[in-house]
Known about the structure:
mainly beta, 3 helices, about 10% helix, globular
Amino acid sequence: MNNTVSAKIIIEKFALSPHPEGGYFRENYRASEVIPAVSLPCRFNGERNYSTAIYFLLERDSFSAFHTIRSDECWHFYAGDTLLVHLIHLDGRAETITLGGDIIMGEQVQAIVPAGCWFAAEPAPGSAYAFVGCTVAPGFDFKDFQLADKAVLAEQFPRHATITHRLTR
Length: 169
């Protein structure tokens, strides 16, 4: 483990709050300019800020539940241990991104979750916590967020039912 500070210290220092999908977060950037609705794809129902960014922390035995958003989301690794980001693409293909600081072992320090994918995250086995950032463009709006329903996701992607069952609330 590469922890030099505890999750509790990070939560306090960055003034993180509980997130509806799990873990802790704080929005640290919201572009002041907006993209007019007429300039956005039809999946958006109004104007959106150019971009938003959050700090996000997941501790051992916690997870970010499967959800989807209408924008691409870029994840950035900051501190702590390995984080597993599980994706189910629109074509049903599953993928797990290993986010972390050990680039020699193939961990990524930055990864993209494409718009419309279902995704969840959890600290890798043996991890105490992972402190990451997420940047969304066009900017995040809770109108674009959908938390997965366990039964619906399992029915839609039956071959991934084990992981969707484990990582939904």
